[in-house]
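Hi Y.,

Following your request, here is the sequence exactly as I used it, all 129 residues.
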Amino acid sequence: MNEVLQNINITEVLSTIWTLVLVPILGYAWKQTYAWLETKKLDKYASILYEEVVKSVKSVYEVEVKDIKKTGDWTPEKQNEVKELAKTKVCQALSTSIYRCLKLANSDFEEYLDSLVGTALFDIKNKAL
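Below is the corresponding structure, written out as tokens. Let me know if you'd prefer a different format.
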């Protein structure tokens, strides 16, 4: 037994432990931390997106919609045109990095943005915002 202990190379044992145990654990911890940070970033970007949607919808509603409704030209085509104007304003207000990140995270970003515009419009009409 004494002879076995003398023949053990401590550097090799530590290297083996590092390679087999610590590197995978540290790699997993880094991956989980990175995923958590990405989620936090997306949450922040989603909040920014909704704030911009609300601003754009309010702006379009105050400027465009009220004028159009006075003329009686409020058709479904005009409604879609105004909705697209609000979506365009939102996309222009977002920074390029936020827009790319959100678009990359949501494969159906256009539908998501469309639903946010509809939600903001409903909230504005019902004075929730």
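The mean pLDDT is 83.

Thanks again,
Q.
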